[in-house]
Amino acid sequence: MSAKKYQDKVVLVTGSRRGVGRAIAEHFLVNGATVLGFARQEATIEHPQYHHFMVDVGDPDSVIRGFAALKKVTDSIQIVVNNAAVLTSQYSMIMPPAAAQAMVNVNLMGPFMVSREAAKLMRKRKWGRIINIGSMAASLEPIGDSMYAACKAGLSTLANVMAKEFASMNVTCNTLGINAIESDMLSQLPRDKIEEIISGLPIARFSVSDDILNVIDFYASERSSSITAQTVFLGGVN
Ligand SMILES: NC(=O)c1ccc[n+]([C@@H]2O[C@H](COP(=O)([O-])OP(=O)(O)OC[C@H]3O[C@@H](n4cnc5c(N)ncnc54)[C@H](OP(=O)(O)O)[C@@H]3O)[C@@H](O)[C@H]2O)c1
C-alpha cells in the first residue's frame, strides 16, 4: 500500500465543524493526517484520527486552554489552517459595535493567538506550515464589509510579518483568499449581491472544495519551503 500524503503530519484546523473548515479537516484525514479541530460547539466529525476541542478562538484564554488540552494528545503540530471566522455584513453607520468587535476578535485575534501558540510547537521540530483562510473581500472591499474586509486584509499582513519571524524555524505563513463557496456563512448574504460580484470575476463561478484544497496542498507541501508571505486569491481576484 502506498504511503498517504499527510500520514506523518498533525494538522490543526480551526472552525472544523462546518463548511470550508470541515472539508479541509476531512481532506487531511483522508490523506492520513492526525487532525485537531477547534470550534465552539461539539464535534461533527467522527474519525479515529480526529480530536475535537471546544475552543472560542476569539477568546485568548480559551485558545490557551485549547493548546493545554491538545498537548495531552500530541506534543507536535506541523500544519495549521486558520479557517474559523464570523461575518456580519452591514453598513458601517449601523453596524452594531459588538458585531464589529466580534469580527476583530475571531477573524484577526484568533489567527494571531493560534499561530503563535502553534509556532511554539513547530519550533521544536523546525518545520511548519501556517495557512490563513482569507477572502476576496480583502481585495474587492465590498460595501457592508468594512470590518470583515479589514480583518481579512489584516490576516495577510499578519501572515507576512510572522513569515519573517518564523522563517529561521522553517515555518512558512501564507494566505488563501477564497471567493464564494456554499456554506452557512454564504447563506447569510443576499444571493443577488454575491452573484453580481462573482459574475464580474475573470473566473465567474462559485468555488468548490477542490479549488480550496488544491491551494492548501500547495502551501502544505514539503516542496513549498520557499513559498511564504504570499496571498493567493481564487477566481482571478487580485
Ligand atoms: N463561504 C464563503 O463564501 C467564504 C468566502 C470568503 C471567505 N470565506 C472564509 O472561509 C472560512 C470558512 O467560512 P465558512 O463559509 O465555512 O463559514 P461557516 O460556514 O460560518 O463556518 C464557520 C466555522 O467556524 C467556526 N467558528 C466560528 N466562530 C468561531 C470561534 N469564535 N471559535 C472557534 N470556531 C469558530 C464554526 O463552528 P462553531 O460555530 O461550532 O464555532 C464553523 O465550524 C472563513 O474564514 C471565511 O471568512 C468564506
TrEMBL record:
This is Oxidoreductase. PROSITE patterns: ADH_SHORT. GO terms for biological process: monocarboxylic acid metabolic process. Belongs to the short-chain dehydrogenases/reductases (SDR) family. PANTHER family: 3-OXOACYL-(ACYL-CARRIER-PROTEIN) REDUCTASE, 3-OXOACYL-[ACYL-CARRIER-PROTEIN] REDUCTASE FABG. It comes from Polynucleobacter hirudinilacicola.
